[in-house]
Amino acid sequence: MTEAPRFARAVSILSCILVVAGLIPCAAWGQSDSPWLVRARLLGVIPDDDSSTITQIGGKAEVDDAITGDVDFSYFFTERIAAELTLAVAKHDVQAVNTGIGKVDLGDVKLLPPTLTLQYHLIPGGKIRPYVGAGVNYTVFFDDDPGAANSIDYDNAFGLALQAGVDIEIDEHWAINFDVKKIWLETDVSVKALGTTVKTDVDIDPWLLGAGVAYRF
After folding, report:
1. Model pTM above 0.85
2. β 151-154/174-193 pair status
């Protein structure tokens, strides 16, 4: 089964469970006069990476997992429809594996992947408020360390994003938040080493798993 159907099935199951759990309406956290909501989360970034064969040396590029934090700002157009902008910075170690010369350290790189999604909130008046979303991501690569190479360059890139999450009310303003995003992201990587430049296309395709708090103004 491909990633997209798995994600869609997970969203469907989660939504059904939370619809049942949130049937009893509750006071007014989800019915605030303010359209603004802010969330802060601890975030696990788990690349589902793959790459084309690296020219000259063979093998593929591999990107490790990262733990970081993120913050998002949501604006509610209606009680059910919102737009969310998520901001985070993650640092990843990169290496070339299964090459003709063994593992090659390609250093590390930082990613700034702002993600904009349009969300649908299933139970805006419930104590448990699940939501789903879809949108676009633009990832900026910066502050790279080439490791054993002379230099390394990552192309900034757009990607599509899907999202599912839930806010669980604490009081009128505060809630606990759990959020999952899947981003389809591909970048072109150029590595200069030993007097030559090697290139590869890397599909990073990360899962973003977050848990934190939400505040509704």
Report:
1. no
2. antiparallel
Task: List the beta bridge partners of residue 152.
Answer: 191
pLDDT band at residue 25, thresholds of 50, 70 and 90? very low
What's the token pair of residue 56? Answer: 């000259």
The rounded distance, in Å, linking the Cα atoms of 207 and 213 is 20
Indicate whether 20 pLDDT > 50: no
3-state secondary structure of 173: coil
What does the buried/exposed string (b/e) look like for 93-128 if buried means 16 or more CB atoms within 10 Å of the residue's CB? bbbbeebeeeebebbbbbbebebebebebbbbbbbb
> Which residue segment(s) compose the domain that 102 sits in?
3-216
Specify the CATH number for the domain of residue 183. 2.40.160.20
